[in-house]
Amino acid sequence: MAFDGTVIANIVYDMNCLLTGGRIYKIYQPEADELLLVIKNQKETHRLLLSASASLPLVYFTSENKQNPLTAPNFCMLLRKHISNGRIVAVTQPGMERIIEISIEHLNELGDLCRKKLVIEIMGKHSNIIFLDDSGMIIDSIKHISNQVSSVREVLPGRTYLAPPAKGKISLYDISPAWMEDTLLTKASSVQKAIYGSISGISPVMANEICFRASIDGDAAVASLSSLEQNALYGELVRLKSQIQNHTFSPCIIYQGNTPLEFACMDLTMYPDMETKHFPSISNVLQTYYAEKEVVTRIRQKSTDLRKIVSNAIERTAKKYDLQRKQLKDTEKKDKYKIYGELLHTYGYDVKPGQKELICTNYYDGNEIIIPLDSQLSAMENAKKYFDRYGKLKRTYEALHVLVEETHAELNHLESISNSLEIARDENDLMMIKEELMDYNYIKRHGQNKRKNKGKSKPFHYISSDGFHMYVGKNNFQNDELTFKFANGKDMWFHAKKMAGSHVIVKLETASELPDQTYEEAARLAAYYSKGKNAPKVEIDYTERRNLKKPPQAKPGFVIYHTNYSMNIEPDITGIQEI
Fold it and tell me: pLDDT over 90 for what percent of the chain?
C-alpha cells in the first residue's frame, strides 16, 4: 500500500502524542535525503526518521541507530544551528495531503523566541524536506528544485514556500452530498479510480477498501451505481473521515502466507481470507513491513541463480520423461507381434508364396485376426521377423520401464527442491538447497568441502491451539532429519499426497493421541508448505512415524508407507502460532 494521507494522519497523531512539548536533542543526516531527529520529552527519548528518498519516502519512529558520515552535510549543520534544543509545539497535516509540518520554537542568537517549521513532503520521487522561517520563507531544503527542474514551483533558499498543487482534488474533511453529486458521480471512470482521483491522500488500495465496505465493485463504472449504492459509498467516505478525525486507528499488515502483502492504519476488510497482524503503532507496521519486504526481496534475488538452475533442470527432465513415456507406450504393441509369430507357427501351412496377409482365428480370444505378411518371405521367416520384433520391444520395455521410474523420481526430487526454494527465508536455507543440488550434480562442487552449513538452518516451529509442537521441514535434508532422527515412532507425520511438500511432524510428548483441532492444523501446514498451496483444497496423508520407511539409495525427503489416513484441507495457516 502507498504511504498515503490516511497513514500520514496516523503518523501525525502519534507524533503529536509523543513529541509535542519535547525538545530536539540531536540531529543527524545518515543519508543524503534522510534525517534522524532524537527528541526528548518527559524523560523519554524518541527517534524520528524522516526520509525523502525517491524510491521509498517514509516518516516513522525507529529504535535503530544509523551510521552517520564523519562530516555532517550542510543541511544537517544548518538545522543544528537553528533548532538544536528547539521545542516542538505542534505537528500538523494540511487537509489529507501527504505533507507533515513540524512547528518548532527556539531561541535565536539574541535570545529572542522564534518559530521555524520543518515540512516533510511524501510524494514519491518529488519528496522533500524543507526548512521554513516564521514568514514561510525557505531557509533551505534537503533537495534543491530549480525552475529548470520544475516549472510549477521552485524549492530554493530565499523563495516563498508554496504547497504542492492539489490537482483538483478535495480533502476528505471537506466532502459533502453536493460535492458527491456534482463531482464524484460525474466522473467517467471506475468507482475506485474516481475516489482516489478526486480525494487527496486516498491511495488505490484504500479506494478499493471503501468500495468493498460499501459492497460495490470498485471496477464498475460510476454511472452504473444505483441510488442505494451511491448512498452506501458516501456513508463509507463519511465513516472513514470519522475514523481519522477520532483517531480510531488500527495499524496492521496483511500477510499472504509469510509474505507481507499490504499495510494500513485501519483494518482492510477486503482481505477476509488472509492473515491480519495488528501492531501497537503505525511506526511498528512500517518498520516490520519494509524490513520483511526487504528480506523476501533479498532472498528472491539471492535465489535467482538457484531457481534458474532448478527450473531448467525441471524443464529438461520433464521433456525426457514425456519422451520416455511415449517410447514406453510404443512398446505396448510387442504382445501383438508375439501373437502374430505364434499364429504363423500354427497356421503357416496355409500361406501360399507371395501372399500379403493371413486371415485366421486368434485362439487366445476366438476372434478373427488379419496378420500382415512380407510377400518376399515364407511363413516361418515372417514368424521369425515378428518374434525378433517382439524380443527387441520387450528388451526396450524392460530398459525403459526402469528409466521412466528413475526419471519420474528425479522429476519429483526437483519439484521438491523447487518447493524448498519457495519457502526459503534466509541464506542458510539457500545454502542447504545449494548443497543438495551439488550432491546430485546439478551444480558443480568446487573442492572437497562438505556440508558445513547443514546445521544452521532450522525447521519452522509452530504450536497448535491445543499446545502440541509442530515442526515443518524447509528442505529435503530437514525433512529426512525431522522424520528419521527427530521424530519418535508414535509421533504423527503429515504430507501432501502425491506432490512435493514439506514433512510435518507433530510431537505427542506424553499424550496418547492428538485432538481433532491439532490434526487439522498440522494438515493445513502440510498443505500450505506444498506445491498445492494455491489450490482450494489439498489432500493430506497422515500416519504414525513408525509406519514410514526410506528405501535404500532413495533421494532425501523420499519415504514410502502403506498404512495411512487422508483428509482434504484448505492450505490456510491463519491463526496457527509460529514460534
Answer: 68
